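pinned: reference chain
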Amino acid sequence: MASCKVKSYRFQDIRMPLKTVMAIKEAGWDFDEFAADPEIRDMISFVSLHYHEPNGIVYCGLTSYAAQILITFDPDTKKFTDLEFQNNDLAEPFDTKIHRSLEPDDDGTILFAIAGLHTIKNHPEARGGRIFRLYPDTNKIEVLVRPVPRDYIQTIAFDRKRKIVYGNCHPILNSFGFDLKTSEVFQMTESVSGHKARCDNEGNLWGTSDTRTIPIPYVGAEDLEIMRERFKVPVGTPLLYRYNPDDGYHYFKDGLPLINGRPQYISNSLDVGDGGIYMGTTHGRLYRVDKRTGAVRQMCDHIGGRLEGIAYDPERGLLFLGGGSLYLTNVFVFDVEKKKLVGGFWPVADTETGDRCIIVHALCLTKRNGSYLAYIGETDNPNRAGYLWECEIKI
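pinned: its structure tokens
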């Protein structure tokens, strides 16, 4: 029988009283106040995870007002190591997050990008996020490019075949491509969508269009207009697109279904090699999208929403998934061939400490001693630092 044992690991162990949390909210603190407070500077979140097969280490991208944003975790010793990005000469004042952007290259290095938490109104001097290359053997960090001045990078996807990095940004909301071979940056016609952007195994970037939709079927134009004006909701489904520089954009005739009249967006996705790309959505659905036809088929539904974490074991055809918000957080397993859940939904909760993950933000997977170890990153806990959660799953 499938089982799951969950344990939390703490890089920073700090909690704040509710009165303090509410007082800060009422005071309307901005970036400068948060960055100056010694306790807030330790209130980290785990927002990117990557298990690096060559050295058996989990790389963790953090949110930190102290720019302490890159650490590792050893699944064997259960120890964290700070790679001390904050003390590197490359660090800049507004480098606050490595957000959904750890991508391995074929040469054993890891690409990552920098996100921020400031507003452009208050800090027009912020120069913009950069893309870096990390050399795990030496922990050397190399700057590759600042693709969009003033804008910071929320996520990247990597086309290994063509050596192109795609990204979307905040707070100005640019989208870009960066060619590693030529060092050229180019703008995208469509937004690079997805909380975690992804390319499939052939290097195609997938996303939801912000320029093309299909109307709700069997509803007249006047009724759609009334619905749009009365309920203030979109009345079309954004089309799915597939893109690469050789073939351009290919738009499919379908998209992710509307939920309660509102669009779903991609939280994360993964190509497992069976002809489809599996997409977790902002509403907690898991879909399989046929890469040739774009046909969308729902696989399962997580009631907690935000299906952010996804990893795959090709030997057994198992997808490992993590999702949920506001403590309705779970880890679960889906059998790709049998198209069913294995073992149900397990809470991301440490039974020894009584703590539970508030929001699942990332997941990576490895194996140890006959068990799967799914690591989950926690974000946006208002009263304590986020944890790294180890979910030991036996199947």
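why pinned: The mean pLDDT is 96. The chain has two domains: 44-188, 194-366.
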